[in-house]
Design goal:
The chain has 21 helices and 22 strands. The protein is an alpha/beta fold. Strands 3-4-6-9-10-11-12-13 form an eight-stranded parallel barrel, surrounded by seven helices. Strand 3, helix 1 and strand 4 form a beta-alpha-beta unit. Helix 14 packs parallel to helix 16. It is globular and about 75 Å long.
Length: 615
């Protein structure tokens, strides 16, 4: 039910001038990767279009390559290489404009970080260096002379002209993630001795000339913006906020060529500090840097990014003068209708981002967007899914039994309820949420409880959905005799008690969770005590569970050893951008770790492990 906007939140819906354009409110869907690029125009258009429908005043593509020299394959970027890209991206801008939203594109030239595995072009950069990341480390760049510098600026201008033709309202230059402007700006990348190297003023020259050229040619048609990393988190040989970060900001600001500023932290290697997971970064972690930036930028609008979902916090940022616009990537994925829900006074209906970075992990695996909170994300076009609209069932008086009230069962019951079915959601436990109710009690995972909270609130509103908890386990006969017209089994799974997993697909000798010194996560949830002073955590999963249990045991004063058959600590967290912080955490906790080892045998007071690659 729609309600009036809270007067305290009204400022979030005031328009603001950005260059020649007017942003209809203060909500800015920051550039974020999703998988469609320019090659899947329907998916791109409808995913961003849903956000425009949901109230986001500006919606952006993912990063957008300006030229085949900046080919990011196998990762998917948008592209503005030719007229085909113009036609494909026009579909997105048309839908955004239908909802009175501005359409934005982030112009990107990756320099030596571009793999160029499709185009086979040789990228140019400030200096003739290889990338410091894999697999791009095998790529070298050509050092740019003056003609090359003009050529690359012209690539941006050509892409900008195509963007205007495609209907974009905002041109944003990526000055983050170690793109070409940063390759000129950072000491570690710029080894030049000409007027583009050496002093900060010289190293800033390329970035300033690029922004000036875009502003001069296209600034009367589009807002010209940049997303700049104030601190690359690489120490003195990179950019440090209180050394050259704010210094550059002031240099560029004095040129008057930027209509809107967005600032961030972390370069290509430390993206996880910008897109910080909730395990390590709470909402608003960049506020001090944004505040310092605003003190320099004055009346020029500044965007605050930081996984904001609470309108009171957003309002406080604007009223205190820290920022003018609220930027969001992950919150806009979790709930594309977040702005509309705030405007309609439906705060309890906001599907808050949990900061798990499953969305990021899909991109870093070269896949399509997915979201723990929003099952429709990425399927707006292909399957026609909508996060707020549901096709009503034509089946009258149809009752559905959903067995299991974990995340999947809750979501199933919610959607069936929205479609008009009579739903009975039943669970053996007294507590709703299934295994997730236990997971969120582990160290650092409390924000993940939003998965349960959102769905519980929605289910409680539905008169056609009944939730029955503490009913005990249902047998097959119980289910069949229940009297439902349709049955959904959502009972999930439990951890193996014998160590069988991906490594060899066989049990670990003598591993038996019935023994007092062998435990599974399920048993720890249930209260089984971790005995002794020394604990070994065996990780065959590679995501968050083993790391969370390591911290749990360490917090109990245990001496913890971590063993995994994999080559890295919790390797899936490379995809969620938290691997570096996991390594820092284990180091801080004093945890001994063995990589590429597996367990041969478990005995009381003893565990035998062996190196996997000794033969």
């Amino acid at each position: 039910m729609k309600m009036a906007t809270d007067p305290n939140h009204q400022i979030l819906f005031e328009p603001i001038q950005i260059g020649p354009k007017i942003l209809r409110n203060r909500f800015w869907q920051t550039t974020h990767c999703a998988g469609p690029g320019s090659e899947r125009p329907g998916s791109q258009a409808h995913m961003r279009g849903i956000k425009a429908e949901g109230g986001w005043g500006a919606v952006f593509t993912e990063f957008c390559s300006v030229h085949p020299e900046s080919d990011e394959y196998p990762w998917t970027s948008a592209r503005l290489w030719d007229q085909g890209d113009v036609l494909n991206l026009r579909y997105m801008t048309d839908i955004a404009h239908k909802w009175d939203s501005l359409a934005g594109v982030q112009l990107w030239y990756g320099g030596f970080h571009s793999p160029n595995q499709e185009s086979r072009e040789v990228a140019r950069s400030a200096s003739n260096l290889p990338s410091n990341t894999l697999p791009e480390r095998t790529q070298y760049s050509s050092e740019m002379d003056f003609d090359d510098i003009q050529a690359v600026i012209n690539m941006y201008l050509a892409a900008g002209r195509r963007a205007v033709e495609a209907g974009f309202d905002i041109l944003e230059v990526s000055g983050g993630d170690s793109t070409i402007p940063i390759q000129f700006l950072e000491r570690r990348y710029n080894k030049r001795s000409d007027k583009y190297g050496g002093s900060l003023e010289n190293r800033a020259r390329f970035y300033i000339e690029l922004m000036t050229a875009l502003k001069k040619e296209l600034g009367d048609q589009c807002a010209i913006t940049t997303r700049f990393e104030l601190d690359t988190l690489q120490g003195s040989h990179g950019l440090e906020v209180h050394d050259e970060g704010l210094g550059f900001l002031e240099l560029m600001h004095n040129e008057g060529v930027v209509d809107v500023w967005s600032v961030k932290i972390g370069d290509y290697e430390e993206w996880g500090e910008d897109a910080g997971v909730s395990r390590f970064r709470k909402s608003g972690w960049m506020v001090p840097l944004i505040k310092e930036s605003k003190s320099i930028l004055g009346k020029t609008p500044v965007i605050a990014n930081g996984r904001y979902t609470d309108p009171d916090t957003m309002v406080a940022l604007i009223n205190s003068g820290v920022a003018d616009i609220i930027g969001a990537a992950r919150p806009s994925i979790a709930d594309p209708f977040l702005p509309n829900k705030i405007q309609e006074g439906r705060l309890e209906d906001i599907r808050e981002c949990i900061g798990c970075n499953m969305c990021v992990s899909k991109f870093t695996q070269c896949g399509q967007l997915g979201c723990t909170q929003n099952m429709t994300a990425g399927e707006e076009y292909r399957r026609g899914w909508h996060p707020e609209k549901f096709e009503k069932t034509s089946e009258e008086d149809c009752m559905v039994l959903v067995v299991g009230a974990g995340p999947a069962g809750m979501e199933c019951a919610r959607v069936l309820g929205e479609r008009g079915y009579t739903v009975h959601l039943r669970d053996a436990k007294q507590e709703i949420g299934g295994h997730w109710a236990d997971v969120v009690k582990l160290p650092r995972l409390n924000e993940w409880s939003r998965v349960i909270t959102y769905r519980q609130i929605q289910l409680d509103k539905m008169k056609n959905v009944e939730t029955h908890l503490g009913v005990g386990f249902m047998t097959a006969d119980d289910v069949l005799e229940y009297g439902a017209d349709k049955i959904v089994i959502a009972t999930g799974a439990k951890w193996r008690a014998d160590g069988l997993g991906a490594e060899g697909h066989s049990e670990i000798e003598s591993a038996d969770a019935n023994l007092p010194y062998v435990l599974t996560p399920d048993q720890i949830y249930a209260g089984k005590e971790i005995p002794g002073e020394k604990v070994t955590i065996i990780d065959g999963d590679g995501h968050f569970m083993a790391i969370a249990l390591v911290e749990l045991a360490a917090n109990q004063g245990k001496e913890v050893t971590y063993v995994t058959n994999m080559s890295e600590i919790a390797p899936y967290t490379n995809f969620t951008m938290e691997a570096q912080n996991n390594k820092r955490l284990l180091n801080e906790l004093g945890v001994k770790h063995y990589l590429n080892f597996w367990v041969d045998k478990v005995e009381s007071g003893k565990i035998t492990i062996s190196y996997l690659y000794q033969y």
